Amino acid sequence: MQNQAYIKQLQEDHKTLKKGFIQLHEKYAESTARVAALDKELDGCRKELNGCHDDCQQLRDRAVVTNYVDHALRKVCFPHYLWIYFLTCLQEVMDEVCEKLKCMICLDVYALPYSLDCRHVWCGPCLIEWFTSQGNTNCPGCRAESIGQPQRDFVLSGILSMVYEAQGRNAPTNLSENFDPSLFAKIYAEKEERERYDVQDELSRL
Fold first, then answer.
1. Secondary structure tally for the chain: helices H, strands E
2. Residues in the chain with pLDDT values less than 50
């Protein structure tokens, strides 16, 4: 029941994040169109200012010219800078999301995320290396023994795919290229064999 509730919660989070990323994409498209329109408007203002240059030279009060130019530039540039600020904030949000999706072993964004019995999530290749070096199947985080083999977290994998798509980059392949999931079965089989041997050894001593 707990696993079902956990999966259901992950699915709800997945839907929420997906909706959020769609909205961010839409706002980004609107921002791009607005910036293009502002650039076009700025070009028009430049042409207008160039056309008025000869007339402005004849004005006695240079303060009038200065105020006119300042007003025109503020009118065009201020909204432009606002959209730049919005895009900067959007990038900060994406960076924060990526920070929360990091494996605490390799300190990078999850590559092929796998979850243990304790619900902690790690990169599949990192778990293989950890189990092999430690000689057991304890969780790298809470040290709880993992009885069942790690399971691929497809919900989190979907979220990661959306993050990479929103950032316009591909998922990292340096860890996943040589990853063999069948190594989990081998590690757990060796663990069971060791435990069986330990039991038999203990019985023989009685």
1. 6, 3
2. none
